[in-house]
Structures are given as C-alpha cells and as structure tokens.
Amino acid sequence: MGTPEQAFPPGEGPAAKVSVSLRAGNIRAIKERVGARGFSAYVDAAVERQIERDLLEEALQANENECGPIPQHLRDEAEQLLRSVKSAPELQEERGWHAHEAS
C-alpha cells in the first residue's frame, strides 16, 4: 500500500508528527496569532492552501498549453470584477467573502 502519506489526498488523513525548520520571525508571528496550541493547525492550513494554489497554477498552465493564453480582454474583465467586489462591502458580507482573503 505504500507510506501513510500516499494513502490520503491533501487535507485528509490523521495528523502525524514531522520536523520542519521555520524562520524565527515566522514562528513568533504564528504564536502571536494563534498561540502555541494552535500552531500545528495554522501551519497545516497554510500548507494546504499552498498545495491548492500549486494545483491551481498547474491547471491554469495546462489549460494555457492546450488552449493558448487567456485573452487580455478577459483578464481585464476579471480584474474589474474583483475590484468591484472588493469595493462593495455589502456584497462581501452577503457572500461571506472578505477582500483581505483574496489579497
């Protein structure tokens, strides 16, 4: 069957201890935000978000390789839509979305 890490997709499976090295400033910042008890959960969530971003980037790259680059007018339209949502607090609250989350 392989190692336990291979048996579960990202974000799934039991917790397991690993040793990682982090910069002292990052350790301090995490502890200030969540305390020592929330440290592992915070780091685990950050890793999961990075994996999601990596997978999205890979999917976007595969799409671009297959279909060509996204036309500039569509990029501009998407940017304008994002700006309009960021500047409309009533839409953010209605959808449970906050502009700082997309930054």
Molecular structure report:
Residues 92-103 have a biased composition (Basic and acidic residues). This is CopG family transcriptional regulator. With 103 residues, this protein is an all-alpha fold. The protein has two domains: 22-68; 70-103. The chain is built from six helices and no strands. The radius of gyration is 19 Å and the shape is extended. The N and C termini lie far apart (40 Å).
Question: What keywords describe this structure?
Answer:
0% strand; 103 residues; mainly alpha
Helix proportion of residues, in percent?
Answer: 55-70%
Shape, please? extended
The description of the largest β-sheet is: none
Number of strands: 0
Beta-strand content bin:
under 5%
**Amino-to-carboxy terminus distance:** 40 Å
Overall domain count:
2
Count of helical stretches: 6
The H/E string reads HHHHHH
Radius of gyration: 19 Å
